[in-house]
Amino acid sequence: RSTSSNTATKPRTMRTALLIAGLLGLVALTHAQVAARLDSQEVRLNRMTARLDGLLGNLESASGGAKGSENSIAGLNGKLNAKYGDDCPDGQFQCGGSDPQCIGNLLVCDGDNECRNGMDEQVCDNPMPKGSVWKGRMSWDKCTARKPDHMTLTVNTAFDDVRVDMEVSMAIEKDTEDVSASAFLLAPGYYDYAEKRLVVKPPETDNLGIVCKFNTGRSDKCTGYIVRITTLEKCARIDFVRQ
């Protein structure tokens, strides 16, 4: 009876051993699969982290260049408005944004928000303060008697209101092979916030004044023309850069 019992126990023991071995193998396989899956997830996580770092870097670069982008956009808007208009009648200011609105130029920078988006009180920086000096080079000239090569504008006074009333001095220079000539003139003028332009009234009896627009997105340059002040007909081109 004892021998029979021992004989019956052996297969049972072997089955138990095989079962344990199978379980251990399954555990080892499962562990390997889990480890492989974790490794795969770690690789994916590393890739995602690298992509996130790249996106953050691009965002920082974009933020660093935001001012330049803003100037470029302002310059482009100026060119488009000059060519196609801004959908506002003459003498009116375009508030812009997603809800376009036109208001009178005299309402710009008066201390009250007439634009629904408040833009009329956000354009009130005067790029031509008292004491600023601007050097201009003549590109072409169909109307002046002196035919200058260069002109220097100096803002002598600037009184800020809904526009900036100024007194401007003009040093005009003409260089030839034989002689250099110059002239010095004084004239009243003003900077118009709504139009972003300087207007210099005629200093002499020839009815010629200057209109210079800040339409490039930069506050140190303006696109200037000598004009017949009664009709604003352009008859000479002179662009100014702040010194």
TrEMBL record:
Pfam families: Eryth_link_C (PF16915), Ldl_recept_a (PF00057). SUPFAM superfamilies: Extracellular hemoglobin linker subunit, receptor domain (SSF141480), LDL receptor-like module (SSF57424). Residues 1-32 form the signal peptide. Disulfide bonds join 109-124. Keywords: Disulfide bond, Signal. PROSITE patterns: LDLRA_2. InterPro entries: Eryth_link_C, Eryth_link_C_sf, LDL_receptor-like_sf, LDrepeatLR_classA_rpt. SMART domains: LDLa (SM00192). Residues 127-243 form the Annelid erythrocruorin linker subunit C-terminal domain. This is Hemoglobin linker chain.
